[in-house]
Amino acid sequence: CSPRVLWDRGGGSAETPTSRGGTEGLFCSLPHSDTSLPAGCELSSERDSYTFQVPEEWQCEQQLALRTICLGEMARDEFHVVEIVLAEGGARSPVPLATLKPSVLPMVSATLMGVELTPPVTFHLRAGSGPVYISGQHVSSKYWGTTAPCPLLGSGGSASCSHSDVQPVLG
């Protein structure tokens, strides 16, 4: 588990974007139209929640792909429960994501493959004192037809696509 790259860059909020634009389901195939950056945060008794959010004015599709949740070496031998709170439609309902204990299950990774969240999302340490490290990838994809800048994408992310540059996303 590598907790060194943090979503929280010291200012209390992520230095990353969100909002949707363009044609749903189509992405540009131009160079630098997709960007993936390592991301992570630490939850503990001193800071038991963290919200990953991105500015709405960035015209990029944003996803947070979770990879690993693990306990730090100083974690007490107690249950540590991490939950996520998704803000969808004004309702905020917590969903348990992982229950860890150093002597039994100090890390989860394989079960998180495929867990992709759309910001904003809040991680909360519901039980335990931590430290708990959450790591993953922040993925930004520029939609076809958008010309507004996306700071995570190369050259300001302001290149637009034509129909010949568009490839359907299979999946």
UniProtKB/TrEMBL annotation:
Ranges of residues in domain Nucleoplasmin core: 40-139
GO molecular function terms listed in the Swiss-Prot or TrEMBL record: chromatin binding; histone binding; RNA binding
Region span, Disordered: 1-23
SUPFAM superfamilies for the chain: Nucleoplasmin-like core domain
Keyword annotations: Chaperone, Chromatin regulator, Developmental protein, Fertilization, Nucleus
Principal subcellular localization: nucleus
GO biological process: chromatin remodeling; positive regulation of DNA replication; single fertilization
GO cellular component: cytoplasm; nucleolus; nucleoplasm
Location(s), subcellular: Nucleus
Presence of the UniProt keyword Nucleus in the record: yes
Family: Belongs to the nucleoplasmin family.
Protein name in the entry: Nucleophosmin/nucleoplasmin 2
